[in-house]
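Human: You know discrete backbone vocabularies at least as well as I do. Show me how you would write down a chain together with its backbone fold. No explanation is needed for now; the record alone will do.

Assistant:
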Amino acid sequence: MLLGVGFCIFQLALSWNAPISEQYAFRQAQTAISVTWLLNGSGWLDYQTPVFGAPWSVPFEFPVYQWLVALIKEVFWGLTVDQAGRIVSLSFTLACLWPLRRLTRHLHNGTSLFYVIGALFLLSPIYAFWARSFMIESTALFFSIWFLAALQDYLRGGQSVSGYVELTLVAALAALVKVTTFVGFSLAGLIVLCVYALNTWRQGHVREAIKAVISVGFSMLISLVVLWLWVRYADGLKSANPLSAMFTGQSLERWNFGTLPQRMSPDLLRVVAIRGPNEALGSWLVPLVLVLWSLIKLSRGKIRVCLCLVGLYVVPFYIFTNLHLVHHYYQLANSVFLVAAVGYAMVSLDEAMPGLLGPLLIAGAALGFYGYQKYYLDDELRGSREHELAVASELRQSIPANDVFMGFGLEWSSEVPYYAGRRAILVPDRTTAPILRDVKDHLATYLDGHTLAGVVVCPNGLATDEAKKRDYQALLDSVTSNRTSQVVGYCLLYR
């Protein structure tokens, strides 16, 4: 496990002074720009992500991670925002070991299972890479694992009041920080609750079983109510601006859940069976071999545990199908179950055939290093966003700090606004013709008293969309007239 800790810290050191311009830079910048504006005095709940114009707020997740990054940046003033974000992300990854330790006590006597799963977790390519990123994923994972640990301790610790308070608070936090991560753990919690209630009922403790079901159910209901209140509040803020209104929960429903054809597609099967295991363990062969071996050598009870963990890895793919197909980092939410299944199989096989654990762990570590080198190292050492950084640098030098720029062809990525340190009105390709007209006719409302000091025009779909190109051209003409242009990368910058 110490090797895993050292491995994660080493990866952080490699990227310490690098911009957050590797995989999914748009998502990292979206989180980072919110921290920047928190530090500049924006609200702590209606925090600003100034990429769509006034009122500048486009909240998605409840900003626990952002608050902590801002706090670290304020306390340790020598850090950059990027560095503070990476530190908090790594800290939450390492902190996951604490609830993992609590959980493994209920699956296995002694500490060997914890150390094996902990080592595989920290050496997992996907967790080692994203631990040193500017993402909320490790924060969401920490609270979700903590929820499962708190549930186990509450049920098996006499259902104490203090345990119930912990369970309820952590469930609410996990749901608020990132519900797409929490869903898989809530399903795991349902399994834990059902097994406990059934066993307790069979032992004749009917009232205790009923109490557990009702109390845990009420705790989950509280977390759902809190989540609903947050989503309603966040969507209300987004709806105040026609551009950001395209990103409310209802508007993104199809994007989040995907379609039935996607669920039936070979592409999803390849993600579940090959891409996911490759990035979690270094090779898809690892879980396949160990699961088949376990089916031959282990008892039915241990086989059920292994298969249950594998199932918890698989199910989220079929809930948030499109998200998992498009975004590799979404597997942080469920790859831990696959890692746990492999760790549990290793320890159980070692008990059946003593002497196996050492070689299996060495092989697991070697595959982890191999997987990191194959799938992540190149992105870590060589960011691929030079164009965006060049545009941001030009804007930072040529536009006053309190002014705004408009961007076409940048989609809704926060990369350029973040590194430019400027507010933006980004017009993504999905923008409808009525919204294009609204931006043109009510530009002053979007600017909210600020000056439009620049326009960035990159290749985009609006210019070729028959239903939109006339309104796009009218908007473009209105904001670029009487401005001079220069080429920056493959974009035009009008000032």
User: Anything to note?
Assistant: The radius of gyration is 24 Å. The mean pLDDT is 93. The chain has two domains: 2-379, 386-494.
